[in-house]
Amino acid sequence: MNLAPSAHGTGAAVHFCLLEPSRTAIGGYKIVYEYANALVKLGVPVSVWHSGAFASQSSRGLRRLRRRVGAIVGWWLLGGRRRWRRDQVPWFEVSPQVATHASPLLPAMRVRPGDAVIATAVETTPFVARYAEDRKAKSLALIQHFETWAATEEFIFSAWRSVDERIVIAPWLEEKCRMAGVSSHLLPNALDPTAFPPGPPLKDRRHLVLSLLSPHDYKRPDVVVAALEALAQLRPGTEVVAFGQATESPVASDVVRYVPDPSPSELRSLYQTAQVYLCGSDAEGWHLPPAEATLSGAAVVSTDIGGVRASMADDALYAPPGDVDGLAHQVLRVMSDLDAAQRRVDRARDRLLSVTVENNARALLNVAGLRPTDLPTES
């Protein structure tokens, strides 16, 4: 695609397209907001465009119509517009320099030649490709998962091919792009170290195992609960705690203590208290909670999936997906050799901190072909 020179000069803009606004924390949204904050700090104009109408782009016929109608009803009749006008993103501090928008309709973005338009979910990708091409802008896809729950593999690969560039957050997604016959740029997620400061060393923590309980089937809440209950039985006195967005515990368990929708400070305290963070998912893009727990000083035990290997490499202990007993015994292995576990935590923490949001933002600009001359130089 031949791009015209930026109409902004050094003010070439970046536009992110997200699905409908979320009242609760979503990892993929958080990554986008962090990019937006970092880019405006570099002097780049940034807009974030939310729309429930994007969800209809991967559907056809009656299903597509229902999704569009549902987006409009949710916005006007179910309070979406009112909530957005009141507090926009209540769970994340988006910089006031970032222009945030929300609508039940496909957005009419103010895109100029030379801007970059970035899809953040497969449903947003075809729209971004068409919109950017019509306006002589550059189209990108920030690929954070292989979203087969939202679209078919054929649709996903076609969507990825439609944009100019692709950024992936994990090596396993690089491989998916190769399968689709397209190139990609690997930018692993960066974490804010001030958001997850280290707690006490493992030897000074209680025998407490922490995990996320999500309603999504691929995150295997059944495996998580079964593994936590097995641990409580195998090692009496072990505390097993789960957290999630549900306001009431989604499981009936006399063993698992549930923390509903923890605030950032509550989540930070949980991570700093836990000796082990347990992930039971069948698939993840680049799973944030194990990395956040590691920065906070917890050891990680996980199913052996690319989305955890991407952040933890060999510094977690793994069991096959769905293996409840394997996960429980790997947790016991951590607790039986805290010195080895501490060495893994320290290695992983150093590696995670070597990736910064600012450097990722600069790399994103490079992929997008935006090199404003007034950007500050790296120290």
SSE topology:
Elements: E1 14-18, H1 27-41, E2 46-51, H2 61-76, H3 80-87, E3 99-103, E4 116-119, H4 125-134, E5 138-143, H5 153-162, E6 165-168, H6 171-180, E7 185-186, E8 208-212, H7 221-234, E9 239-244, E10 257-260, H8 264-273, E11 276-279, H9 288-295, E12 299-303, H10 306-312, E13 317-319, H11 324-336, H12 338-353, H13 357-368
Parallel strand pairs: 1-2, 1-4, 2-3, 4-5, 5-6, 6-7, 8-9, 8-11, 9-10, 11-12, 12-13
Helix pairs in contact: 1-13, 7-11
Structure description:
With 379 residues, the chain is an alpha/beta fold. It has 13 helices and 13 strands. The chain has helices at 27-41, 61-76, 80-87, 125-134, 153-162, 171-180, 221-234, 264-273, 288-295, 306-312, 324-336, 338-353, 357-368, and strands at 14-18, 46-51, 99-103, 116-119, 138-143, 165-168, 185-186, 208-212, 239-244, 257-260, 276-279, 299-303, 317-319. It has a seven-stranded parallel sheet, sandwiched between helices. The chain has a six-stranded parallel sheet with strand order 10-9-8-11-12-13, sandwiched between helices. Helix 1 (27-41) packs across helix 13 and helix 7 crosses helix 11. The longest helix has 16 residues, at 61-76.
From the spread of the alpha carbons, the general shape counts as elongated
Number of strands: 13
Distance separating the two termini: 34 Å
Number of helices: 13
The ordered H/E elements are: EHEHHEEHEHEHEEHEEHEHEHEHHH
Q: Please mark out the parts with pLDDT under 50 across 5 or more consecutive residues, or reply none.
A: 1-10, 373-379
- The Rg value, from CA coordinates, equals 21 Å
Structural class: alpha/beta
